[in-house]
Amino acid sequence: MALGNRYKTAPGAGTLAALILVLVFGSPWYGDWAMDTTDANTAGGWWLRLLNWPAWQFDTADSLRDVVVGDLKAILVVLLTLVFLLLLPGSQLARARGTISQFFAGWAAYVFAGGFAALLATLFLSNPSLLAAFQSAGSGAQYGLFVGWIVGLASLGGRA
């Protein structure tokens, strides 16, 4: 028996979309492909490279701390997406499923999740600085701004 749309929650669908984005596009294989086959000086190439932002890796050449921090950023993006989807009122206040408020709540949740994940992960780097934390948060929010619409679309139609 297939579960219909009536069982889909907006936070669950948005978090699942965030998990898929991070697992697929944050993978080392996608990152290598994007760097080798795209041109950063075109809009499409820039966007395809941006998709790899919360990259996770298993590289033995890096220090354990750097590997954990890189993976922590990817994990935090997914977890914070769930937290912000639960906290943002757009999906709860929407009278009808599939309204524009659910879309923007999902999108905003991913912008906030990207920014805060980068900010928190930077604090665990060796020699963290406030400037590096702010710059990293900016890159995370930029990622959320240009990729978060996918999470917003996934959140459409779900119940709060």
What does the secondary structure layout of this molecule look like, with pairings?
Layout: H1 10-25, H2 28-37, H3 43-50, H4 64-87, H5 90-93, H6 100-122, H7 130-155
Helix pairs in contact: 1-4, 1-7, 4-6, 6-7
Transmembrane segments: 12-31, 72-91, 103-125, 140-158
Keywords: Membrane, Transmembrane, Transmembrane helix
Please give a structural write-up.
There is one protein chain. This protein is an all-alpha fold and 160 residues long. It has 7 helices and no strands. The longest helix has 26 residues, at 130-155. 36% of the residues are buried. The model has no long low-confidence stretch (mean pLDDT 85). Keywords: Membrane, Transmembrane, Transmembrane helix. The chain crosses the membrane at residues 12-31, 72-91, 103-125, 140-158.
Features:
160 residues, mainly alpha, 7 helices, globular
What's the β-strand tally? 0
* Global morphology: globular
Radius of gyration: 16 Å
* Distance from first to last alpha carbon: 23 Å
Going by helix content, strand content and strand pairing, the class is mainly alpha
Mean pLDDT: 85
Order of helices and strands: HHHHHHH
Roughly what percent helix?
55-70%
Count of runs of 4 or more consecutive helical residues: 7
Strand content: under 5%
Low-pLDDT parts are none
Characterize the largest beta sheet: strand count, sense, and whether it forms a barrel. Answer: none
**How many structural domains?**
1
